[in-house]
Structures are given as C-alpha cells and as structure tokens.
Amino acid sequence: MRSLMTQFARMSCNKTTRKLTHHTNSLQPFLTTNTSVSTLSDLSLSSPRSVAISIFFFTSRMAGDQVTLLDLWASPFGMRVRIALAEKAVKYEYSEQDLWNKGDLLLQMNPVHKKIPVLVHDGKPICESLIIVQYIDEVWNDKAPLLSSDPYERAQSRFWADFVDKKIHDVGRKIWTTKGEDQEAAKKDFIDSLKLLEGELGDKPYFGGDTLGYVDVALLPFYCWFYAYETIGNFNIEADCPKLIAYCKRCLEKESVSKSVKDPQKVYDFVVMLRKKFGLE
C-alpha cells in the first residue's frame, strides 16, 4: 500500500487534481461516510499525500469489495483481524503503519482514536478489533461462522472477549510496564484470569465448541506475547495453566492462526524496544 501511495504522490498534483475534480460525484460518498472529510476541497489536493488518499477512495469504489487492513505487525488486535480474514478466506491488502509517525491515511480512516487496526472495506473504515471481527463475520457469512446464531451464546462470547481485553491485555501490559510489588500483583492477576479462561474452556477444543470462534480469535494473538510477559516478569505461565497453553499450541496447528500470529522472540524484542523508548529499562 505504501509503495502505491508513493507512486501516486509522485504524479503531477495539478494534473491529478483536474482528474479528481471531474470525478467529484463519484468520490463524494466516500468523503462523507465515516470520515472527517466532507468535500474534495477539504483534502487540500495541493498535497501529494492527500491526492494519494483521494485516489485510494476512488479506486476502492471502482474495484468493488476492496479490503485493506491498516495494522502494525506486532499488534495482537491486528492479529485478531488477520485470523478472522484468514478464516473467511477474504483477500485483502495489508498496510503497515508507523505509530510514531502516523500517516494521513490512518488519521483519515480513524480520526477519533487514531489507532490501528482499521479495516477499510470499499472505502469505508471499521475501527476497533472486536467490532471489526464481528463485521467480518456478518459480511462474509457464507463460511466459518465465528459467532453463534443463538443470542445467548453470542452474548456469552462477547462477554469473554471483553474479559480478554480487560484482563489479559490490560493486566499483561502491567507486567512489562511495572516493577516490584505492582508487577507481582499483575502477575497474580494475570494467572488468575487465565485460570478463569481455562475453566470456561473446559474440555472443549475451542471456546465456542467444535470450531474456532469469536473468543478464540480474541484470545489467541496474546499467546505470542506470553514469552515477553514471562521473560520480563520472570514466571512460567504453563506451570500454572497447562490446559490453556495446550489449547493455544493446538490452535497453532490451524493455518489461519499460525500465519496470522507472530514469532514470540520477535514480539519480545519489540517489547524490549518499547520499554527502552518509555524509559523502563
């Protein structure tokens, strides 16, 4: 995606502006739907980067069912979206984002939180990973359902996915951002939370039953972060939660999971870089 935008940015701005002005009516639906842009002139088409974004909107509409994921390779939230797209066999374009130098496309697609991941489907952005996964499940509903058709079971899945956000991500972050008593408390809270998940999983192959589902997609990306938590916190998750770790390893046998999550060592190196950047080492 970046190379595509660079190529467009090198075009003559005046020439491109004339062409885009000719297609104002075609672009207008995308410039007024879920974006902070209301008219073509708002994009300041004298900027090559803005020209590139305008062409992104236009070509998305012309292509039909164009799917682009704005993401960061190490993000467990982005990995959720990648697993869901893989399960549905949806082809998409991947656009790696620099979160320390956020580009115009990310800022236009997610003007509220300015965060990844963002799924752009036919020029329309969908933000927040769990919402994106639900969207994917609803739009591409012809295979591999992630949520049950039963309202109660759907509600339970959403509850546990929310639990993962609040207890696995938030508490896990405390393990690598704190020291001393705070870190020890975070480690205990983290293990206690994983044990609750073990109890919910029971003897089922997946949280939803016999097939990979919504809660699995929410949880599994954090498995590749466990090594970083363990190394920095000096503890062993498998010793306390063997059933959950066995479940994670079993899920990695699925191609949709193994190709979507990242190498734990590389994630650890990324976390070490973050700790240095935030002055924690």
Structural description of this entry:
The protein is an alpha+beta fold and 281 residues long. It contains 15 helices and 4 strands. The chain has a 4-stranded mixed beta sheet with strand order 2-1-3-4, with helices on one face. It is globular and about 55 Å long. The N terminus is likely disordered.
pLDDT average, as an integer?
A: 85
How many alpha or pi helices? 15
Point out poorly predicted stretches: 1-46
Content of β-strand: 5-15%
Order of helices and strands: HHHHEHEHEEHHHHHHHHH
Largest sheet: number of strands, sense, barrel closure: 4 strands, mixed
Question: For the largest beta sheet, what order do the strands appear in spatially?
Answer: 2-1-3-4
- N-to-C span: 35 Å
Specify the overall morphology: globular
Helix % is 55-70%
| Radius of gyration from the alpha-carbon trace, in angstroms | 21 Å
Please tally the β strands and state the result. Answer: 4
User: How would you classify the helix and strand content by structural class?
Assistant: alpha+beta
